[in-house]
Amino acid sequence: MSTGGKRAGSRRAAPAPRTLNKAALGLGAAITLCVVAWGYLVYAAIDFGTAARGGTGGSAWSFMALACLGAIVCLFVGLLLVARLMRVLGITTPPPSDDAPPRPVGGKRAAR
To answer: What are the extents of the domains in the chain?
Structure first.
């Protein structure tokens, strides 16, 4: 029985070690923060709106408006960060630049 030879090694290469994608991790944390802030602001807007309709708060309407505006901003920023995360993970591709050659119509190559 032979233990050596030309083909004694493994037929597969060792798997490459996985690296931590710091950009994706940071974007994920920022998205989580935006979603939590959005949820809190929506809850606060509902609470301020209830107080304003009950007539117990003179400035409750303005606080409700500020909470609504803050919730809108948090949701918008969160969606922008989701789009950026998809780009970092390679799920989407960036739009073509202005100096890129035009794509043929219908996805076919142009005749030469």
So the answer is: 22-89
